[in-house]
């Protein structure tokens, strides 16, 4: 029976006064640059007024390094890389040596994380204060000195270079032809007063159209989730290429052979994208469309035959989940794949997949260039994990969240109906906690959300288990949502990898289930633990409405991108606009949840959970 929490469900056990822990003082001073993360007022109050334990209100987080405040979820991971690079540089003796090491933002010693993948050591002045870690702002192509009045212009020039879309005309001298894509092509054009036909269809995107990647002007790097290029948080426009059909194209549709391949794990919406690619190709006039079975493997595994595709064949595939073409991991040998592309005379390759697939697509694109093949390789970002840089979301994510919150709801109902019920749900997300965070937010039924980006302890005074005790005493039941990649440092690593080389994670869900059961047994408190691991259920389903729309647009734009002559690009949504990005810009690291983002703070406000360390 399904029941709404307040009305139909049996009441939970009577609440008892909250379990109180002795208040502890939290002083963040004396930690180098980390202390600057808090305002002076916050720091004072943190040092002088210990807040009561288990307060449901959002408390200032402890020991968060300063620089993540400069970054959003897209770029948070870059800071980890910079920290690692900087720390290793330091240990190799190239860095100024005074500990402690925190990434820090000041006028003359700057780390800013946005869009910069190379960290270089800068000069450290001798100061009395412990020196912060010094990382000079660099980008992949240009070093910026913010004292130079023209730094913005340099930044923008560098940006435009990086986000310039690779195209087949970079290696081929080709003349475009007028597009065959017009939604008016089957109608008789209306004439003006002289009877001259007027083509009023204005559905083409100009190649100079750009969308802004970011729209917020942050007044300070300390603003929640701030993304700043320089320490003053100046406004700099970061523009990317708008996606859509162009008036001129670089292929003769009748001569084109187009192929579609789906790689990696399953994801809701794969079929919707396949279907739209086929529809759009046919609208251009392409007749030779094939599907490559079972991911990149289909290019070289004997016995796997390409599948001819047509509108008729794919008409209804979106009604089911999975991939009509099949998926696989591993086995990507770029040169063999390109041999196969060459042998099959493929002109356009549409690649649907996550970060690994994108890396593969880019390698294929590069190899085609090297061999001077006129092939457009266009990717469409697919992953329930939502862990690809720069884009608002990847297709499949919304649906996975929707399915995940069904599991949370079941855990809630089980926990709410049991005496001292504890519902525990583990959700997917190989390297990031987006599904867990969003499903916790959307369900509104989670008391504790644990993600890999935010470390936690299970045992001890400030551990999760003590908080569960508190919840049982105060609420009578509780629900915990843990991301599969969370708390890996608490578990033994197997060191195993899957066929694509992805690390196989240890099972935090089972570990927590056992720890919770043992803990309550040890302290002699009854606890009824119900563990739900919905695993493949969150991704083996058909796309929901919002993903279906996203897939439709991304699939269509992928085809427009190929006909416009682009290659090595991905078709995605940024800042609510549909755009093309060079693949190289989205695959450097997985996108992760920024613990200083408003979204994570909202999640904490919703769950009411404290710090667990
Ligand atoms: N760096 C790389 N270069 C070339 N090919 C790669 C690379 N990384 C992964 N691949 C190939 O891409 C395909 C998919 O990779 P992977 O299994 O990691 O899934 P994914 O695309 O990241 O999607 P998911 O989100 O499901 O993990 C595999 O066939 C793999 O061999
Ligand atoms: O299909 P497999 O190999 O079990 O992969 C599971 C992984 O794939 C994903 O669903 C997508 O990357 C992850 O959330 C999960 O860790
Ligand atoms: Mg991946």
CATH class of the largest domain: Alpha Beta
> Segments where pLDDT lies below 50 for 5+ residues?
1-140
- Roughly what is the average pLDDT, rounded to an integer? 81
Return Rg in Å.
27 Å
Strand content: 5-15%
The CATH topology assignment of the largest domain is Rossmann fold
What strand order characterises the main sheet? 4-5-17-16-11-10-7-8-9
Distance from N terminus to C terminus (CA atoms, Å) equals 38 Å
What's the shape?
globular
Number of strands: 17
Please summarize the sheet with the most strands.
Answer: 9 strands, mixed
Binding site for Mg(2+): 355
GO cellular component, one term: cytoplasm
InterPro entries: ATP_PFK, PFKA, Phosphofructokinase_dom, PKF_sf, PyroP-dep_PFK_TP0108
Function: Catalyzes the phosphorylation of D-fructose 6-phosphate to fructose 1,6-bisphosphate by ATP, the first committing step of glycolysis.
Overall description:
InterPro entries: ATP_PFK (IPR022953), PFKA (IPR050929), Phosphofructokinase_dom (IPR000023), PKF_sf (IPR035966), PyroP-dep_PFK_TP0108 (IPR012004). Mg(2+) binds at residue 355. It is found in: Cytoplasm. Keywords: Allosteric enzyme, ATP-binding, Cytoplasm, Glycolysis, Kinase, Magnesium, Metal-binding, Nucleotide-binding, Transferase. This is ATP-dependent 6-phosphofructokinase. This protein is of the alpha/beta class. The protein has 3 domains: 22-48 and 71-162, no CATH class; 243-392 and 542-585, Rossmann fold, CATH 3.40.50.450; 397-538, Phosphofructokinase domain (Rossmann fold, 3-Layer(aba) Sandwich), CATH 3.40.50.460. Helices cover 29% and strands 12% of the residues. It has 14 helices and 17 strands. It has helices at 40-48, 73-91, 151-163, 270-284, 297-300, 311-314, 334-344, 355-370, 397-417, 434-443, 464-474, 508-522, 545-563, 598-607, and strands at residues 120-121, 135-136, 177-178, 210-212, 239-242, 248-249, 257-262, 288-292, 307-308, 348-353, 376-381, 421-427, 448-450, 478-483, 528-532, 569-574, 577-582. A 9-stranded mixed sheet has the order 4-5-17-16-11-10-7-8-9, with helices on both faces. Strands 13-14-12-15 form a 4-stranded parallel sheet, sandwiched between helices. β13 (448-450), α11 and β14 form a beta-alpha-beta unit. α4 (270-284) runs parallel beside α13, α7 (334-344) packs across α8 (355-370) and α9 crosses α10. It is globular and about 85 Å long. 6-O-phosphono-beta-D-fructofuranose is lined by residues 265, 329, 354, 383-385, 428-430, 484, 498, 539.
């Amino acid at each position: 029976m399904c029941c709404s929490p307040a009305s139909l469900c049996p009441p939970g056990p009577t609440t008892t006064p909250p379990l109180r822990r002795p208040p502890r003082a939290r002083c963040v001073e004396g930690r180098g640059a980390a202390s600057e993360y808090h305002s002076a007022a916050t720091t004072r109050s943190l040092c002088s007024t210990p807040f009561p334990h288990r307060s449901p209100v959002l408390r200032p987080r402890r020991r968060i390094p300063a620089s993540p405040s400069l970054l959003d979820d897209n770029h948070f991971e870059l800071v980890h890389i910079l920290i690692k690079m900087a720390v290793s540089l330091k240990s190799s003796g190239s860095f100024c040596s005074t500990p402690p090491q925190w990434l820090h933002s000041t006028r003359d010693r700057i780390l800013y994380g946005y869009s910069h993948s190379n960290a270089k050591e800068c000069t450290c002045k001798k100061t009395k204060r412990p020196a912060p870690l010094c990382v000079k702002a660099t980008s992949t192509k240009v070093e910026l000195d913010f004292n130079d009045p023209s730094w913005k212009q340099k930044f923008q020039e560098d940006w435009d270079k990086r986000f310039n879309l690779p195209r087949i005309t970079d290696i081929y001298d080709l003349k475009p032809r007028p597009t065959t894509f017009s939604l008016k092509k089957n109608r008789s054009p209306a004439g003006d007063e002289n009877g001259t036909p007027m083509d009023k269809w204005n559905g083409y995107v100009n190649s100079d159209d750009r969308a802004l990647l970011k729209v917020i002007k942050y007044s300070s790097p300390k603003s929640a989730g701030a993304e700043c290029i320089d320490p003053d948080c100046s406004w700099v426009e970061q523009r990317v290429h708008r996606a859509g059909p162009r008036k001129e194209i670089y292929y003769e549709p009748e001569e084109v052979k187009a192929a579609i391949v789906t790689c990696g794990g399953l994801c809701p919406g794969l079929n919707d994208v396949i279907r739209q690619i086929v529809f759009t190709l046919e609208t251009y006039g392409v007749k030779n469309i094939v599907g490559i079975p079972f991911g990149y493997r289909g290019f070289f595994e004997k016995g796997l035959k390409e599948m001819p595709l047509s509108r008729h064949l794919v008409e209804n595939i979106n009604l089911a989940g999975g991939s009509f073409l099949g998926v696989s991991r591993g086995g990507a040998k770029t040169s063999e794949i390109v041999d196969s592309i060459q042998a099959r005379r493929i002109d356009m390759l549409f690649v649907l997949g996550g970060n690994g697939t994108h890396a593969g697509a880019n390698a294929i694109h590069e190899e085609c260039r090297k061999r001077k093949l006129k092939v457009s390789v266009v990717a469409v970002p697919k992953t329930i994990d939502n862990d690809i840089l720069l884009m608002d979301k990847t297709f499949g994510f919304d649906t996975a969240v929707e399915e995940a919150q069904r599991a949370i709801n079941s855990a809630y109902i089980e926990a709410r109906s049991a005496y001292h019920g504890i519902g525990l749900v583990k959700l997917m997300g190989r390297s990031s906690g987006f599904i867990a965070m969003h499903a916790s937010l959307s369900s509104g039924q989670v008391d504790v959300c644990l993600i890999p980006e935010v470390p936690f302890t299970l045992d001890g005074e400030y551990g999760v288990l003590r908080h569960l005790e508190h919840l049982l005493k105060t609420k009578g039941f509780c629900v915990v949502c843990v991301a599969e990649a969370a708390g890996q440092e608490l578990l033994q690593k197997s060191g195993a990898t899957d066929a694509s080389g992805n690390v196989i994670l240890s099972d935090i869900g089972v570990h927590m289930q056992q720890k919770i059961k043992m803990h309550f047994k040890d302290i002699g408190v009854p606890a009824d633990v119900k563990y739900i691991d919905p695993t493949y259920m969150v991704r083996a389903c058909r796309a929901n409405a919002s993903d279906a729309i996203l897939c439709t647009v991304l699939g269509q734009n992928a085809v427009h991108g190929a006909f416009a002559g682009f290659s090595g690009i991905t078709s995605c949504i940024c800042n609510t606009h549909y755009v093309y990005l060079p693949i190289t810009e989205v695959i450097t690291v997985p996108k992760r949840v920024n613990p200083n983002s408003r979204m994570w703070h909202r999640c904490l406000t919703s769950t009411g959970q404290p710090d667990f360390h």
